[in-house]
Design a protein that fits this description.
The complex is a heterodimer of chains A (531) and B (290). Chain A has 531 residues and is α+β, with helices and mostly antiparallel strands. Chain A has 17 helices and 21 strands. Chain A has 2 domains: 221 residues, Periplasmic binding protein-like II (D-Maltodextrin-Binding Protein, domain 2, 3-Layer(aba) Sandwich), CATH 3.40.190.10; 212 residues, Dipeptide-binding Protein, Domain 3 (Dipeptide-binding Protein, domain 3). Chain A starts with a helix and ends with a strand. The chains are: A alpha+beta (531), B mainly alpha (290).
Chain lengths: 531, 290
């Protein structure tokens, strides 16, 4: 009897395990079939925070772009029959604005707009949002609190607000396009933790209340669901529901996309794009971004403090071949320290082409004529970084520079790269405002040395002066002259090895239409139409 | 001078054990596989048709063919050549790491079992702590704290193998130290080290040999696992686990050879070590003989 009882229990356990396994399998490999109104997106990781004042990673910014709105939006343009996203300011929560000669901006706000819970949107909400940003002072909003303080926010009426920059800044208006200035509901925030100086509101990390086309419906560990906001003031989106699946494996994402179980996969390696083209149910959209990827040479580390060593490396690297092989053609080689689409981009000075004789010449001039050994650091699991390191090893070996590859988790890399202990590393910079100030200054201004962006520890008085000064000039030709001078000096000093501008590449099913590629990697689902 | 061959003593237990091992089909097959791997580990670098580190970016992702019998990887490197070098590295890691773990584990087990009391408690509680962690997770934690590298993998694998050897040795020592011949040696004034190493160790070794063979397979898996996760042998050094990792993204698009071939080599050697361990256990344990 006892044995029979054991067998029954064992059978029940096995049955439960099978049913659970089927359930998990069905969910993973056969989620709710995408209808014309549901968009399913696969991503590697969940957002770090839904709070626009805190969000700094692409996963988090994706949600903020759907749930919140900013005063100023991003425009679009049609090029050769293809509509692409631009950074041109267009009305969003502000219907129009006036920019004054001192840089101040007077916004007229849209009326009859409410948050998803029905709370009204007005200038009080804008003031609350910006004050909150300034008070919380998290890393995400350094762009804003660098040029706006509480005394610069003036409510002039229920739907009228004047913002005054704390320092001259030609791109002050563009700050209010950034997701970080997404307008939050004061009542909602105050009812859930309020605002604490220099502290994060943990409730807002997993909850959201905005005026955007979508609202948060479900937040789980493996899935997040947004549904259309019934109180949205704009045209109702075609996509009624967004299902964000967290699929930690790029290979699994690819399988799901190929089967049509997801509509968009955000993390398929570039090496797989060519094979995706063989699928008739898939298509790939790509477009240039404002990013810049480079090989850094930290002057705080011997022997990279030696100009001849840096020049030797510049001449030893075939940047075009390195770019093509590591990015499978999706990287656009650049010849300066910012993306080609950025104002004042000047390719004339970065004249280092592959020349081993010159490389050896400069190495002989340095204190290391017989070469040296060093480490090359990059983010673990980044196929582009891995490829660059592997190819660079072979290239530098030709001039007796031996590099050991070291990979680190993205969080460790982000923390350590600015400490000045890594001589050679692979890094990228996404120019959020697509301006030269946001492109060059963080990377080469002496005041940004270390964790603030100048990981190369580049320190040149003229360059620092030019970059700071240019960022205050409203006259474009005057500031461009300074940026051009800065680029010349950086190239002469071999400040880094610029590699490429990475395209934003998004594979998707063919029933997804009107997904516009933006230079800042943003995605706005409300623009998408599904068939 | 006519050299007289010494006649083999057929009553020698070691000879009989080897004879039984070779008569066992499982043992024979496992030995053959392991010998092939040992041969590849020694002669592989001389047999490799290509430099395992040489990049050929124009010949990336080529399928198996006459010129590249196991195809090429994403950098155009010949996979068969890389496997030959990787086998040498993985076998070295396995034998070295398990040997270190074996030596330390047996010593600790002997000391623990022989001295007993507080010494036994202290050592065994430490072993219990080590055993409470899943080996692979513990190895990962060690590797992350030390950093990538050959010796990191050796240290991680040897540490996780110590507790098993210590416990098996201790249990044998506990049952052996009260044998009459041991007591006789004690009464004759033999030193502790003499008793431990001359009388107890030969007895304690036998069960640990089985564990040694089984741990070799586990060592290969842990080492490959560490490299698979990016905390083991850094690139571009060929290592079976890291070769599997680098090829994973290509499996979905049909370039299966980058991951599958290194994976198969891991499978065969681990199975061979496990088969060997089982066979040794069979031939040395009279209760298990058919």
């Amino acid at each position: 009897m006892e044995a029979k009882f054991k067998y029954i229990i064992a059978a029940i356990v096995v049955l439960v395990v099978i049913i659970a396994g089927l359930g998990i399998g069905l969910h993973l490999f056969n989620p709710q079939k995408s209808t014309g109104n549901t968009l399913t997106i696969a991503s590697l990781a969940s957002p770090s925070s839904l709070d626009p004042a805190v969000a700094f990673d692409t996963n988090s910014v994706f949600f903020d772009n759907q749930i919140y709105q900013t005063l100023v939006g991003y425009g679009t343009k049609t090029v050769n029959g293809t509509t692409v996203g631009t950074l041109t300011p267009v009305p969003e929560l502000a219907t129009n604005w006036t920019v004054y000669s001192n840089g101040s901006v007077l916004f007229n706000l849209r009326q009859n707009v409410t948050f998803a819970n029905g709370d009204p949107f007005n200038s009080t909400a804008v003031q609350f949002t910006l004050d909150r940003l300034i008070e919380m002072k998290q890393g995400a909003d350094f762009h804003v609190f660098s040029f706006l303080n509480a005394s610069g926010i003036h409510v002039l009426g229920k739907y009228k607000i004047m913002l005054v920059p704390s320092a001259p800044y030609p791109w002050f208006l563009n700050l209010f396009q950034l997701w970080v200035t997404g307008i939050v509901d004061p009542n909602y925030v105050n009812a859930h933790g309020g605002v604490q100086a220099k502290q994060v509101n943990t409730y807002m990390a997993t909850h959201a209340m905005g005026t955007g086309p979508y609202q948060l419906n479900y937040y789980g560990t493996s899935q997040i669901v947004l549904t259309a906001n019934p109180n949205y003031s704009g045209p109702a989106p075609n996509v009624k529901q967004i299902v964000y699946e967290i699929v930690p494996s790029p290979a699994t994402q690819q399988t799901l996309l190929e089967k049509g179980s997801v509509n968009i996969a955000l993390n398929i390696p570039l090496s797989q794009m060519s094979s995706l083209k063989n699928y008739t149910n898939l298509k790939i959209k790509s477009g240039p971004t404002s990013s810049e990827f480079y090989i850094g040479m930290c002057e705080n580390v011997t022997p990279f403090d030696n100009l001849s060593v840096r020049k030797a490396i510049e001449y030893a690297v075939n940047t075009t071949a390195l770019t093509n092989y590591s990015t499978y053609g999706f990287g656009l080689p650049i010849k300066s320290v910012m993306a080609p689409s950025i104002e004042a981009y000047t390719p004339a000075f970065q004249n280092y082409t592959l020349n081993l004789s010159k490389a050896r010449f400069y190495l002989n001039q340095s204190a290391y004529p017989k070469g040296f050994s060093t480490n090359f650091s990059y983010i673990a699991g980044d196929p582009v970084g891995t490829a660059i390191g592997t190819i660079l090893q072979q290239e530098l070996a030709k001039i007796n520079i031996t590099i050991s590859l070291h990979s680190y988790s993205s969080s460790t890399f982000a923390t350590e790269v600015g400490t000045g202990h890594w001589g050679l590393f692979y890094e990228g910079w996404v120019n959020l405002l697509a301006t030269p100030d946001d492109g060059i200054r963080p990377l080469f201004n002496a005041a940004n040395i270390g964790i603030y962006g100048n990981f190369n520890y580049f320190n040149n008085t003229t360059v620092s002066h030019d970059l700071v000064k240019a960022g205050t000039l409203y006259n474009q030709s005057q500031r461009d002259a300074l940026y051009i001078e800065a680029q010349k000096i950086i190239a002469d000093q071999a400040g880094e090895v610029p590699l490429f501008n990475m395209q934003n590449v998004i594979p998707m099913t063919t029933n997804v239409h009107d997904l516009y590629i933006y230079p800042t990697f943003d995605i706005f689902v409300s623009q998408i139409r599904m068939s | 001078m006519i050299r007289k061959w010494k006649k083999i003593d057929t009553n020698n237990p070691l000879f009989n054990t080897i004879k039984m091992f070779l008569a066992n089909p499982t043992g024979l097959v496992s030995l053959a596989i392991i010998l092939v791997y040992v041969f590849l580990a020694i002669a592989g670098p001389f047999m490799a048709p290509y430099n395992p580190l040489a990049l050929d970016l124009s010949g990336r992702l080529l399928p198996p063919s006459y010129t590249h019998i196991m195809g090429t990887d994403e950098y155009g490197r010949d996979i068969w050549s890389r496997i030959l070098y990787a086998i040498r590295l993985d076998m070295a890691i396995a034998f070295l790491a398990v040997s270190i773990g074996y030596t330390a584990g047996v010593l600790l087990g002997m000391i623990s079992g022989y001295f007993g009391k507080l010494t036994d408690h202290a050592i065994m509680r430490v072993m219990d702590i080590l055993l409470s962690f899943p080996s692979i997770l513990f190895a990962i934690a060690i590797a992350i704290s030390i950093g990538q590298g050959f010796w990191t993998v050796i240290i991680a694998v040897s540490i996780v193998s110590i507790p098993g050897f210590a416990r098996v040795t201790r249990s044998t020592v506990l049952s052996t130290k009260n044998e009459l011949y041991i007591l006789a040696a004690v009464s004759q004034g033999a030193s502790r080290s003499h008793i431990m190493f001359k009388h107890i160790l030969p007895v304690a070794i036998t069960p640990t040999i089985v564990l040694y063979a089984l741990n070799l397979g586990a060592a290969i898996i842990i080492s490959a696992g560490l490299s698979f996760l990016g905390v083991g042998i850094p690139p571009p050094t060929p290592e079976l686990g890291s070769m599997i990792t680098s090829g994973l993204q290509y499996v979905v698009s049909g370039q299966w050879w980058i991951s599958i071939f290194p994976g198969l080599f891991i499978v065969f050697i681990v199975i061979a070590f496990n088969m060997m361990g089982d066979t040794i256990r069979e031939v040395t344990d009279v209760t298990l003989r058919r």
